[in-house]
Specification:
443 residues; alpha/beta; Rossmann fold; Dihydrodipicolinate Reductase, domain 2; 2 domains; five-stranded parallel sheet
């Protein structure tokens, strides 16, 4: 299926890093409001570039247009795509106003068109594995979900020097002006809502904590660079998300049940290892000991942190097989560094939309799902330093774990049994309670 792309900025290169892994989509061409930028990326990747927006919108060979423009342009570009009779794939956040969001979805449905929106990490192997572990009851009944998006004190890391593969500067000032919540909270909201369904209400706090992060004037000058939100899911689960660009890297995803915890240390790596820990007396007791807390070998010995469980790996939507990595030295080195830094397959969302259109099935995320995440995102950033509680005005029907993930995965409850170390610890504690046998008993 042919797609067009409007917007050739920094995020464009992130999509291009994996888009050729998806055999079901083909790039017809690109357009950017800056002709020099469009020509630069088209030369770099060998793509056609359109001279104006009308040209790409009127290309009859294109079925989907991806909108990678800046946030403030999303509404107008999305509307133009729909009015041209094309399906929309939009970078996050969808728009910055709920009335505009509702208008666009109503327009799409009246025209028989689809809208899909980033992020796509709920489709990752990591998220699907955590979802299946919850589905299998491996942590018991889920009670809490914690998610972190501390994304480094980026203002100390020379962001003005960062460049994409094709040489586009990272728009750090625009990121500051938009705020890390608008830009990033969706990464965690997506997998949390996919697994646990709609949120009943959100209570949030947001504030600008880094007035000195740049010497350049910002508009607005006080966009929050920190937020924390507590989510009350309809299913009874409670969630908490923190976003900042002040604290060191922490992207943890943790699902806590009444019998255990399943966790991964970042959403950003779509094949990040997942660990399952079944709560036991030994690990819970040992956590209190400083020597254990500061020694990874002792943590492993006592079962703290759990067991790494096999990831669900399935062909992406529209593909028949997983792409096999190359075996050349260069490919192996690339694979090594990809494993260390993690790979976001942002293009999987485009492949999912294309396959859903091609097979005439519902796509993920649905219109209602994206509308719900948009409302949550705006409510969290907009909470302000006085905080606010926001009952959600829109909802979606809970999503089922994809059948391909069910079929490809083991029953993760099998990985949650009591380990030998736990049985030995119980026996040791029993001996301590009983004390040594009387001397007469030993004769």
């Amino acid at each position: 299926m042919k797609i067009g792309i409007i917007g050739c900025g920094y995020v464009f290169d992130l999509y291009m890093s994996t888009i050729y892994n998806h055999e079901s989509i083909e790039i017809a061409g690109v357009y950017d409001i800056n002709p020099e930028r469009a020509k630069k990326v088209s030369d770099f990747y060998g793509l056609k570039h359109y001279p104006d927006q009308d040209s790409i919108l009127s290309d009859a060979s294109i079925t989907i247009i991806a909108n990678f423009t800046s946030i403030e342009s999303h509404y107008e570009v999305n509307k133009a795509i729909l009015l041209a009779g094309k399906h929309v794939y939009c970078e996050k956040p969808f728009v910055t106003d709920m009335a505009q969001a509702r208008e666009l979805f109503a327009l799409a449905e009246s025209l028989g068109l689809r809208i899909s929106c980033a992020p796509s990490n709920a489709l990752s192997s990591t998220s699907q594995t955590m979802w299946k572990a919850v589905h299998d009851g491996a942590v018991g009944d889920v009670r809490m979900v914690y998610a972190e998006f501390d994304n480094q004190p980026v203002y100390l890391m020379n962001p003005e020097t960062w460049r994409s593969r094709s040489g586009t500067p990272w728009p750090y000032l625009h990121e500051y002006e938009s705020g890390c919540t608008w830009e990033h909270v969706g990464y965690h909201l997506a997998w949390m809502c996919a697994i646990f369904g709609p949120v009943r209400s959100v209570t949030a706090f947001s504030k600008a904590t880094l007035p000195d992060k740049t010497d350049l004037p910002m508009n607005p000058p006080d966009t929050p660079d920190f937020s924390v939100a507590c989510l009350d899911f309809e299913c009874g689960v409670v969630g908490r998300i923190t976003c900042s660009i002040a604290a060191p890297f922490d992207h943890q995803m943790r699902i806590i049940g009444n019998r255990g915890i399943v966790q991964a240390n970042t959403y950003r790596d779509y094949e990040c290892p997942v660990y399952l820990e079944r709560f036991g007396k030994l690990a819970l007791d040992m956590r209190r000991i400083r020597l254990v807390r500061t020694n990874s070998l002792l943590q492993w010995l006592f079962g703290i942190g759990g067991t790494k469980i096999p990831l669900i790996r399935t062909p992406p939507p529209g593909s028949k097989a997983l792409k096999k990595p190359g075996r050349s030295p260069k490919a192996l080195l690339k694979s090594f560094w990809s494993g260390q830094l993690g790979v976001q397959d942002k293009a999987i969302g485009l492949a999912e939309l294309a396959d859903a259109i091609d097979t005439n099935r519902p796509h993920f995320p649905s219109h209602e799902f994206t509308l719900h995440l948009t409302e949550l995102t705006l409510a969290i950033q907009g909470a302000g330093p006085n905080g606010s509680a926001h009952p959600l005005s829109c909802r979606f029907e809970p999503v089922d774990l994809p059948e391909r993930s069910r079929a490809a995965a083991p029953n993760y409850l099998d990985y949650a049994g009591h380990l030998l170390r736990e049985r030995l610890w119980r026996r040791f504690r029993e001996l301590l309670r009983k004390g040594p046998a009387p001397a007469t008993d030993r004769l």
